[in-house]
Amino acid sequence: MKSKSILRTALAILVSAGAFSLVASPVSAAVGVTIDQTTKLVDLRVVSIKLSSIPAGQGVYISQCYKAQKGQRTASGLTCNGSLTEQGTMIWATTDASRGSQSANDNLTLMLRSSFTKVDANKVSTTYECGADNCSIFVYRDHRGLTDTALDTVVPLKFLPTQDVAAVSLGLKKDGGKYVAGSSVSISASKLITSKSQRVVVSSTETRSICSTTGTSSVVISFKKAGICSITLSAEGSKNLDQMIKTLTYIVK
């Protein structure tokens, strides 16, 4: 319980005072940061991070941030994926074993996203696309020295190009739409192509009792009975292109 209280306090301070950001040049780095992969990244890639040169008794936060700049704070526009309360999206590492933190001397891991979504105070949702040069790993002082920018360090991240296919282009309703039990949708092979010209595979394995798919080149989706139908659209990637895995959910009545 005490650990959770400390994390909540840390998060509150972080939000009110603002978070840091980093310069895109490694020359400006004040902390040694080694990451096992920073280029040709794909969505959901888990990277290994090793830190060095963090002063005794201090700690840092490690986040994936969008267009971060050294000295920037949340109050001045810093935008990062996740938070301390969202497991796996942010790291708190210290040299003094503060309760709830990880050791700054350990090998640390962080899952990266090719894009992430934030919701503001007005409940407006915005998606940030990382692409080849929009995101970085940002290392900065924790809540015990939040205004200290001496340890600010940025490591640029480069993601592979992504691909997509819109539901409406396949003749499907938008995600969350409704279908009548007994109805079906036919999708021709010519439509089952992503924005990067990769073939789209359609499946409904997890909810096949509610909806099913038949066909290989052309596909028919049959909505069989009332319930929640999940349709998965997938396309292979390559060394120069990220794979696509997209799930659409429909209500069948």
UniProtKB/TrEMBL annotation:
InterPro entries reported for this sequence: Neocarzinostatin-like
What is the protein name for this chain? Unannotated protein
